[in-house]
Amino acid sequence: MKLRRLVVVASVAVATASAVPAYADNVHQSVVVSERPSPDVPHVLDGAYSEKKAVHAIEQVGDTVVVGGTFTSVQSKDKTRTFARKNIFAFNRLNGAVVETFAPQFDGEVDALAAAPDGSIFVGGAFSHVTTPSGAKAMKGLVKLNPATGELVPGFGATTNSTVAILRALGSRLYVGGKFTTIRGVSRSRLAAVDAGSGAVDPALNLAVAGTHKGSGSTDVRDLDVSPDGSWLVLIGNFNSVGGQARDQMAVLRLGSPATVDSWQTSRTAPACSDTFSAAVQG
Q1: Measured between alpha carbons, how far is 157 from 144 in angstroms, rounded to an integer?
Q2: Residue 36 CA to its chain's centroid (Å)
Q3: In the chain, where does DSSP find H-type helix?
Q4: DSSP 10
């Protein structure tokens, strides 16, 4: 069952309800995208043939493009230089040059990136430590970096006790989804919102994501999106309830004070996934 496509469907429904234009990822294009990567960007050299894809997230901050995933080396676009980059790197979108001053190292995969309103970059994933030019620090799940220097941004703190799978920044809020049950020491079950500047946990979003789809795998939020006006949130993942209400793999929330589970729901996500798809996801 391809849940990411259903986010588009729910986003359209949510946007219509709130009188906000809908945005979809799978927009029809006039040409077919080439199978060959662009020659104008750096090349990730390893991880591509592992169980998971080498690149998990891409985000643009000004003229800098940040890339996260499960790799250890990157090659310049002209293939003349190789850079050691552990699970994250950045390049200039105008000339494709690797940003040499941005070389933090993460001890686990980087799964999510989001541009912050102050020009920095949020990084989420399955890591426990990050090494910057200033040294190594224990920073689990979520950090905020300067995209030019690779240093941690002072004043922000919102580490988690487990994996962060998805990040969405909107205004002064950062929405976080994953496998965690605490963030910044505050109890939050797989879904939270924090202040984009300080990392302080928003008390308005406190809806427990619980259970699993057909009793398999571990509970998580795998993807989410927020309407442009900040009044709706759509989430998908491996769960069967949100805020104590039955919701199988997908839910729509109203982002009020407090946030509540909307009455919208679908039966399309209730059937069991095929054995082949389930194995691929759980692998």
Answers
A1: 8
A2: 26
A3: 3-17, 275-282
A4: H
Could you tell me the two tokens for 226? Answer: 């927020």
69's tokens? 């995933």
Distance of CA 106 to the CA centre of its chain: 16
pLDDT in tens, 164-218: 999 999 999 999 999 999 999 999 999 999 999 999 999 999 999 999 987 888 9
CA angle 176-182-186, nearest 5°?
A: 100
Per-residue pLDDT tens for 1-29? 445 444 544 544 444 444 434 444 556 67
Give pLDDT, residue 39: 78
pLDDT in tens, 220-277: 999 999 999 999 999 999 999 999 999 999 999 999 999 999 999 887 777 776 555 4
Residue with the larger pLDDT of the pair 53 and 181: 181
| C-alpha pair distances (Å), 278 with each of 2, 109, 164, 166, 249 | 11, 22, 21, 20, 13
The residues with which 210 forms a beta bridge, in sequence order, are: 241
Q: Report CA-CA distances (Å) from 143 to 118, 165, 167, 246, 278.
A: 14, 13, 11, 32, 31
The β-bridge partners of 175 are 168, 193
